[in-house]
Amino acid sequence: MNQPTSFLLNVFRPKIVHRIPGRLRLRIPKPPGNLDLPVSAIDDWTVFFRNHEGIETIEYNPLTRTALIKYDCRQITEDEILATIDRFFNLIVASIPKFLGAPKKALESIPQRIKDYLSEHPVSLTDEEPLELPDGIWR
């Protein structure tokens, strides 16, 4: 992993604020400057975790940039949730160069396209393959 990518992953990676079995509270750091637009695609956590067994509720507060994830410990582990969140943030960081190179007319619609794509293509919480977004999102 190169140095800029490593730096960005540390900037974007959610921090655990509090954890007890079945509940996980995360703070999502605010990205710098013009990187906020592609990252606004993460503001709807329910899209990312929709229809996954074991995830009971996700409450995201954009003002405090915190997410409370309630889950069933018998169906999913905290480690599986955190690994999936890491995969998602790796996707966001890997997408930044494409976002920055996208045509200006497409910039405002990219976050919604990412949400729509993730809604239509749910992510497996146990899959370890890197996530990728189709090239059409950036046009």
Radius of gyration: 15 Å
- Helix percentage: 40-55%
Top CATH class: Alpha Beta
What would CATH call the architecture? 2-Layer Sandwich
Strand content: 15-25%
Main β-sheet, in a few words?
Answer: 4 strands, antiparallel
The name CATH uses for the topology is Gyrase A, domain 2
- Overall pLDDT, averaged? 76
The quaternary structure here is single chain
**What is the count of structural domains?**
1
- Shape verdict: globular
Structural class: alpha+beta
Largest sheet: spatial strand order: 1-2-4-3
Give the number of helices. 6
Low-confidence stretches: none
The H/E string reads: HEEHHEEHHH
Describe this structure in words.
The protein has 139 residues and is of the alpha+beta class. It has helices at 3-12, 36-39, 45-49, 78-100, 104-107, 110-120; strands at 15-20, 23-27, 55-61, 66-71. The protein has a four-stranded antiparallel beta sheet with strand order 1-2-4-3. A hairpin with a 4-residue loop joins strand 3 and strand 4 (66-71). The longest helix has 23 residues, at 78-100. The mean pLDDT is 76.
In a few lines, what is going on in this structure?
The protein is built from 6 helices and 4 strands.
Give the arrangement of secondary structure elements.
Layout: H1 3-12, E1 15-20, E2 23-27, H2 36-39, H3 45-49, E3 55-61, E4 66-71, H4 78-100, H5 104-107, H6 110-120
Helix pairs in contact: 1-4
